[in-house]
Every structure is written in C-alpha cells, then in structure tokens.
Amino acid sequence: MIYLQMFWIFFRLGLFTVGGGYAMLPLIQAEISRYGWITGEEFVDMIAIAEMTPGAIGVNTATFVGFRQGGLFGSVLATAALTLPSLIVVVLVSKVLDRFQDHPTVEAILSGIRPVVAGLIASAALFIAQAAFINPAPSGSVVFNPTAFALALVSGVAVVKFKLHPITVMLGAGVLGLFIF
Amino acid sequence: MAEVGKTAHASKRQSKMRFLLEIFVTFFKVGAFTFGGGLAMLPLFEKEVIENKGWIQRQDILDIYAISQSLPGVIAVNSSTFIGYRLAGIPGAVAAIIGVTAPSLIVIVIIASFFSKFRENFYAAKALHGIRAAVTALIFLAAYRIGKGSLKSLGGVIVAAVAFGLTLFTDIHVIYIILAGGLGGILVSNIGRRGVGQ
Fold first, then answer.
1. ipTM value greater than 0.95
2. DSSP 8-state assignment for residue A102
3. What is the CA radius of gyration of chain B?
C-alpha cells in the first residue's frame, strides 16, 4: 500500500514540476510532511546530502525518501516513479520534433531559445561560483575564499593546458580539499 | 542457410546489447560526477557524450538543454533520455535513465544507512569544498565553449545578456524566460520574412 502511494506521489512530482530538481524540493517537502514521512529537520539534512553526493538533486531526494520508507525496493520504486514521466514526455516530444525539425516555425523558436539558454547557463555558473568561493564567516557575514578560487584556477589550467579528464580533475580537487580547507 | 541467418541475427542482437551497455556506462559516468544541480553535468556531457563518443554536436547541447528545462522532470534525466532516445529509441532512453540514476541509488542507499554519521563528516565536507571549486572552473569552461559556438550575432549576445540579467536580478521563473525567447524567435523570423517580401 505504501509502495503504491509512494509511486503515485513521485510520479506526480516527476510529471508536474518544471524547472528541475530544485523546483521539486518545496513540493517534495509538502508531500512527505503531509504523510509524516520525514521531519523538517531531516528534510534539511536530506537536501544537504543530496547536494553533496553525485547525481541529480531530484533523483537523490526521491531515492532517499524511498529508502527511508521502503528500503532498497522503495528507493528503486521512487526513482523509477520520478523518472517515468520524463521517459514518456521526452519520447513524445522527440517524436514531434523529429517530424517538424525543418519546419521554419520550430527553427525560429529554437533560434530564439538558444541565446536565452546560453544566458541561463552563464547565470547558473555564477551561482555555483558563489557557493564555491563565498563562504559564511563565523561573524555572520560572508568572506571570499582565495584558496577555493586558486583551486578553481588550477583545475581550469589542468583541463585546458594538460587535457586532463574532468573526472580526474574533480577527484584531484576533492583529495586536495582534504588538505587545504 | 538458416544457421547463417540465425548467427547473423544473434550477432546483430549482441551488438545492439553492446550499444545499450555503452549508453548505460556513459550516462553512469555522467550521473556519478554531477555534483550540484542539472547544470553541473555539462562538463561530463561535453567530455563523454560530445568529445569521446561524438553522439551529439556541441551546438545541439543548447537545444537539448532548452527542451529539458522546459519539460517536466529532472533536467539531467530529461537530457539523458533525449540523447538515449535519439541514439537507440526507447531501449536507448531507458538505458540512459538507468545509467544516470544508478549512481544516486547506490550512493544514497549507502549514505542513508549511515545517515547521522555522514551528516557530521568533517572529511566529506572538505573534499566536497575542493570538488565544488573544480566544478566551478569546469562549468565556466563549458559555458564559454558553448557560448562561443552559438552566439554568432549581436542580437544573440544581447538576448543572452538579458536572460542572464533576468535570472540574476528578478524572480521570474526560468520557464517564462525560455518561452519569451521562443516567441521572440518567431517574431524576428516573421519580420525578417516580410522584409524580404517587400
């Protein structure tokens, strides 16, 4: 019974939230607190863990709630329910796009959207930079973290000049982080 | 003859299975090294899906990202599904979804089992701080390369700058900004066509 309920909740979340995992968080909170599955404090911790661990935020959160409620099977079920709408919607949209790809209106829409997305990517990059370089100080204000900035520069050089794989660079920066922060 | 036909069929099926496995592994890597929201997967997408596999062109990533963000669901899952479907139909889409979500499943299940210990883990926080710094650099590089390839007109640069400002300084939902871009595209192309007609 709880499995059915959980499937239905996460299926709906996957179907009705536009804007990715972060847009999903308030809805997830509303749903799971309605059922009393997780306390408010646990929810905050869960988001912190979803952000700290690899993978999409929405998927991580769904997996977490699913595991708490129904063990391994629950986590697989929640993830499947969350991603099933994507599968259906994306496949339908792909079919339509394939058919009308060369239609002038579709081309016009995409040509207007492309620069917008480039702008969105730039602003998202800035948000991530803020999280990485600006740290809360004990006094309550924020301080710039020069060590993190230097590490970012070194990472950039490692990718551009030395052609290192992004995975190697991320792992290296993680290990360095243990010693320098 | 029937035997030959059967082996040919079997090897075709085998090569299809191998391709699906390749899709799974590629998206597993993307899922395993996406730290933060949907955009954090860009560097991995670029390296694995564009450069190593050549499955999509660099300029296509903007279309895929735009569509993924406008549709319901998790952005990373939507874009993976999109590419998986394009490569190998519905089985490809399923392989991509399983690949990109499997790392979450594995890691979260392990952490959820030791919840309170991880939460206060001093070392995890430090390592993450380092990873975040690297991810910032990687995303800026990806954004630069994508912007360079796609912003070829002055109009495009202006639109990108306006979208950048709107997301930074207002609370307007991203979906409306994307929709406005689409409408703008239709308007500009209609004006262009009428201009040519006269």
1. no
2. T
3. 21
